[in-house]
């Protein structure tokens, strides 16, 4: 049984590892080439800009005294453990496994930032007509796509039910 669960979880862990590598690689490039707050215009709706997020999504709790760093680190690690357990028990479900792998890779990518820097490095900025979406990174993108896939998986599961 152990080798069966390992064989179903390994491909998902490989996808998560690729997300982590891509996330950390892009953040390293940004840190090496931009100062905090510095950016460049890429297109009329897309910029690269180095932003430090000490909170969670949309800078939630970013202005707190520092406890949030450890809270979100612990939350990310707890989520990672839970996701690995879910992958071990449901790794044979393709869309579900893919979704969890994306969320896992994104969560670990942002935990690494919190541990190394005390904040998450964001750098993708999308805007239109003076409206700016909060900056994000590869890890955030993976988490968002993974969440959308989880919703799709649930919709498909419900539709299959009698």
Q: Your description of this structure?
A:
The radius of gyration is 17 Å and the shape is globular. It has one domain (2-134, 141-160). The mean pLDDT is 89. Helices cover 64% and strands 14% of the residues. The protein has a four-stranded antiparallel sheet with strand order 1-2-3-4. 29% of the residues are buried. It has four helices and four strands, in the order H-E-E-H-H-E-E-H. It has helices spanning 2-33, 67-90, 94-117, 138-160, and strands at 39-41, 46-53, 120-128, 131-132. The chain is of the alpha+beta class and 162 residues long.
Strand content: 5-15%
How far is the N terminus from the C terminus?
Answer: 30 Å
Mean pLDDT, all residues = 89
How much helical structure, as a percent, in the residues? 55-70%
Shape field: globular
What is the number of E strands?
4
Rg calc: 17 Å
Write the H/E string, N to C: HEEHHEEH
Helical segment count: 4
Q: What is the total number of structural domains?
A: 1
Q: In what order do the strands lie side by side in the largest sheet?
A: 1-2-3-4
Instruction: Characterize the biggest β-sheet.
Output: 4 strands, antiparallel
Find the structural class using helix and strand composition.
alpha+beta
Compact overview of the structure:
The chain has 162 residues and is an alpha+beta fold.
């Amino acid at each position: 049984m152990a080798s069966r669960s390992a064989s179903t979880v390994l491909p998902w862990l490989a996808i998560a590892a690729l997300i982590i590598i891509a996330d950390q690689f892009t953040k390293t490039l940004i840190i090496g080439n931009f100062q905090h707050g510095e950016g460049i215009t890429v297109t009329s709706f897309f910029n690269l800009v180095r932003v430090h997020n000490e909170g969670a999504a949309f800078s939630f709790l970013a202005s707190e005294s520092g406890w949030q760093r450890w809270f979100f680190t612990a939350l990310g690690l707890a989520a990672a453990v839970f996701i690995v357990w879910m992958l071990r028990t449901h790794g044979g479900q393709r869309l579900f496994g893919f979704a969890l792998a994306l969320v896992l890779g994104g969560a670990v990518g942002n935990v690494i930032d919190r541990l190394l820097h005390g904040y998450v490095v964001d750098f993708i900025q999308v805007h239109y007509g003076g409206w700016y979406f909060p900056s994000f990174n590869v890890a955030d993108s993976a988490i968002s796509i993974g969440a959308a896939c989880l919703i799709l998986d649930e919709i498909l599961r419900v539709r299959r039910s009698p």
